[in-house]
Amino acid sequence: MIKSIEKQRNIIDFTLSSLWRRKGKNLALLVVYTLVVFSLGSVMFFTQALKNEAAIILRGAPEIIVQKLVAGRHELIPMASAQTIRAIRGVEAVKDRLWGYYYDPIGRANYTLMVPEGMDLKENEIIVGAGISRVRQVFRGNALLLRTYDGRPISLFIKGILSPESELLSSDLILISATGFRRLFGVSGDDATDLTVTVLNKKEISTIAAKIVDKLPDARAITRDEILRTYDAVFDWRAGIMIAILAGAVLAFLIFAWDKAAGLSGEERREIGILKAIGWETADILQMKFWEGTIVSLSSFFLGVILAYFHIFYASATLFEPVLKGWSILYPEFRLTPFISGYQIAILFFFTVIPYTVATIIPAWRAATIDPDVIMRT
Amino acid sequence: MKSVRNLILFICLLLFTAGSLWGAAEIMPGKLTPTDKCPICGMFVAKYPDFVAQIGFKDGTCAFFDGVKDLMKYYFDLAKYNPGKSTTDIAHILVTDYYSTKLVDGFQAFYVIGSDVYGPMGKELVPCQDEAAAKEFKVDHKGAAILLFKNITPELIKTLDQ
Question: Do A207 and B99 touch (CB under 8 A)?
Answer without folding.
Answer: no
